[in-house]
Amino acid sequence: xxxxxxxxxxxxxxxxxxxxxxxxxxxxxxxxxxxxxxxxxxxxxxxxxxxxxxxxxxxxxxxxxxxxxxxxxxxxxxxxxxxxxxxxxxxxxxxxxxxxxxxxxxxxxxxxxxxxxxxxxxxxxxxxxxxxxxxxxxxxxxxxxxxxxxxxxxxxxxxxxxxxxxxxxxxxxxxxxxxxxxxxxxxxxxxxxxxxxxxxxxxxxx
Length: 206
Description:
The chain is mainly alpha-helical. The protein contains 10 helices and no strands.
């Protein structure tokens, strides 16, 4: 009995195990179909233990999404804060980070679930918009306004619709989910080409 007590997980380790189990369940079953019992079974613990760490599956999901997006937003925010860094470079880094940290990993399933099931769970989408989308758009507004002031944008009006920068990232998620089996999308080429449509070539004409 004493040995079992020594084997008890550290709270942070247990929390990480629960999140890993939740990620697997959400990816396999979807958000709506996953129950807290499923997460507990996947983690090999009692359901009550899950509730000690997370009040519901919405809390599980939002923490998973936040854990993915926060490091990306932090790096882009740091680039935006440095006015010496060209806006085009900062936005290209956003695409690079998104491709490496989301699109090329299993994390892309979380964004797929938001797109597919988000309308049924407004608390999840509201959190995602408040904590991730709105903050990301704030950074993009700064970068695009700076680019417009420098004459770097092909169309300065783009600075008023920062959502356009997110468009190829969303397209890549939709495409890889629905159509990749039928036609390959070169996402690096997609991002590079999109940058060319946004920005004036260095030393060139619009």
